[in-house]
Amino acid sequence: MTIIVSAAFDSGNIRVTGIDGDVVSLEIVTDHLSDFYQWFHFRVAGARGRTLTFRITNCAGSAYPFGWPGYRTRVSTDRETWAMAPDTRYDDGVLTWTHRFDTELAWFAYFQPYTMERHDALVAKAALAEGVTHREISQSLDGRAIDCLSVGTGAKQVWLYARQHPGEPMAEWWMEGAIELLTDATDATAATLREKATIHLVPNMNPDGSYRGHLRTNAAGMNLNREWDSPSAEKSPEVLCVRSAMDESGVDFAMDVHGDEAIPANFLAGFEGIPSWTDALGAKFYEFGRRLAQATPDFQTEKGYDKAAPGQANLSMSTNQLAERFGAVAMTLEMPFKDHDPNPDATHGWDGPRSKALAHACLKTLAGMIDEI
User: Fold this and answer.
1) Is 334 a catalytic site residue?
2) Active site residue: 27, 168, 334, 372, which one?
3) pLDDT(1) > 80
4) Does domain 116-372 have CATH number 3.90.1150.10?
5) How does pLDDT run across 96-122, given as a tens digit for each residue?
6) Which fold has domain 4-109?
């Protein structure tokens, strides 16, 4: 049979540059109107009974080439269960792995995908849950809905938003976990948060990039997490509408959910360096991280990004903008494309179900601190 490689589907991205026997050579396609690339997701048919070697040859020029060493490709034969290709290796700018095809089809991806079809199903189910209010607060450049779900009646205004960078699907897996917990009528954590806070959730800030198979940008080639100081209807309506909704409600606590290519751990990034920084506000952020590390082995505080110097925070990034704009306890949660090395999983690495479980731990931590925020 002829080997067929396809990425013409929701969140797909790959280009075939050659097939020589059992060796398939590939390239990742750049985001539209952008030089960013790293996300890949494709399907292979016609290889049952064969062992193929895959080579992505343009990794050296990707957005984060330092993220490839130690990384392992994700593989699935049913699009539900994803495992790491154990022999993945990175040498001289080429990512290589092999797969024995015992099935008719197999899918490969940079991380366990979260498609727009799954997003739509998540929003539909959540919108039917008791106590949930759904708003389509605007539309993307391609005309896709920017969905916002609100739950709870308390005075504290909590904003949870994800997937500004579409090629970081662990962020929406996290959101699925958060929504499932917050809509659980029997969960004590959810009851506390619903009583004391109003929680607004934007599961996907960048639906166009998600569908198009982008790594980092929207349909206009804009990195949304560099648009928060001056978003525009022409280039970044996704940020403009969410920030406007935040202006209406106010923000006491905010978490921006992401994935990090290089660091093999879950960690938080804060708002050090904003003009209005105070040690009292910063202490609340640091305390959240300490309590989260105590709550789950899937979080740690040793690894992370360097802190901005006083007065040097980039206010075009949402966490800095919200801390400065509202005096919010704001933070960015980063999850790995590799694994959480302090508590590794040799088969699956970091994946969707673990991202969902981390959301539960984050919300339990927030419930324990909600009166202090």
Assistant:
1) yes
2) 334
3) no
4) no
5) 999 999 999 999 999 999 999 999 999
6) Immunoglobulin-like (2.60.40)
